[in-house]
Amino acid sequence: MRCHDFDSGNVWRLVLALSIPTCLSQAVNVLYAIVDRMFIGNMDAVGDIALAGVGVAVPITSLLSSFAVLIGMGGSPLMAMREGHGEHEEAVRILSTGFSCLLVLSAVLTPLFLIVKTPLLLLFGSSPTTLPYADEYLTWYLLGTPFALVGSGMNSFVINQGMSRRAMVSVMTGALVNVMLDPLFIYVLDMGVRGAAVATVASQAASCAITLTALLSDKATIRLVPAAPRAYIVRRMVRLGLSPFIIIATDSIIMIALNAILQHYGGQTMGDTLVGASTIIQSFHLLVMNPLGGITAGSQGLLSYSYGAGNVARVRRTWACVQVLATIYTALMMALAWNFSAPFISLFTQDGQVARVSMHYLRVFTAAIIPLSFQYNTVDTFTALGWSQVSLPLSLLRKAVFTLALFIIPALTGSGGSAFFAEPVADLTAAVISTTTLAIMLPRVLRMRAEGRLSI
Predict the structure, then answer these.
(1) Under a CB-based contact definition with an 8 Å cutoff, are residues 385 and 450 in contact?
(2) What pTM value is reported for the model?
(3) Average pLDDT across the chain, whole number
(4) Which of the four, 260, 318, 361, 388, has the lowest number of CB atoms within 10 Å?
(5) In sequence order, which residues have a C-beta less than 8 Å from that of residue 127 and are 6 or more positions away?
């Protein structure tokens, strides 16, 4: 699908064509990450220890990936907005600057993380037993940083010029490569944890190649032309991408805090059980949040293009269509969590107590995911329109409420399990405030844009 379809194509069809493939891509990403951990956890003799080590390394890899989000989510809406405004050459410059920034970040972050990886692993909870596995996995993963950053970051530029199917193919190819290579490297070649990391790097390289091929092909409306980054574009890109960057960068820290609270209040009798349940619950929660983010972010290109073109009616229509999709998806996932979670939980544990605790608190953790869809859509809408001064505070709001509730609720109740209630409290609070903000500000912003009082 080419960018000119954004002018007159049916909005519902465009939203479905953009958001559904992006949603599926994110779902596949989560699924193959889960499969990755299952292979490691089933290694002979050392599976549990190796899985714990890799689990400590995951927040660091998530932090690294947030830099791809900073450039991809910050630059791609700007590109689509300029294209919608008829500034094709500027859109090309934005795309080229994004590519150059990702290369520079790869060159800087790879040696930096290799130098500080051991202190970070110890800070994030690695023990002398798990440190060798965490260190081995992270070392090999970091060697593939250019593939991870360029592939993921540039995929956003593919999506936001209407080629969401090509973006989906890129992600799914990477997932397939990873799932095929994991058992080969881990078991057949006896590479253990190192094999899992090498398989991940290979999958990221495959995704990166497909993404760059799409941007260099004749099918791309805005083609990649490698060039030096422009400082003024970098500033706007970082300012707009700061909101999603902070979301990803802080998620791992919050989850570490959750596990610490569960261990502290659960004590010797329930601490390990609650932390084990938390790992399972967070895995399911990723299956909710990442595809939901795919739905709301997948149509950002259409929002940005329509806003740049001054077609505010299509902006309103796009928001409404995305919200319908997001509501349907979260309602479906909530129904699964409340009624059909047992098969999912059984993939991770055969311990009856852990399974029971997981099932109970999974319902608590997902109790407000339907309202949360409004918060996600609001944040991504303001990001697409270039209003980072609104999207960033709304993103931080949910994290702040979650953190406060995480410390206050268990302190008041004395129960470790009550920490899980921090999630629905944060989701509901953020949804109410975000939706209120949208209702007040969006009509005003669109009216000013339609009257020509707002530039892009």
Answers:
(1) no
(2) 0.74
(3) 84
(4) 260
(5) none
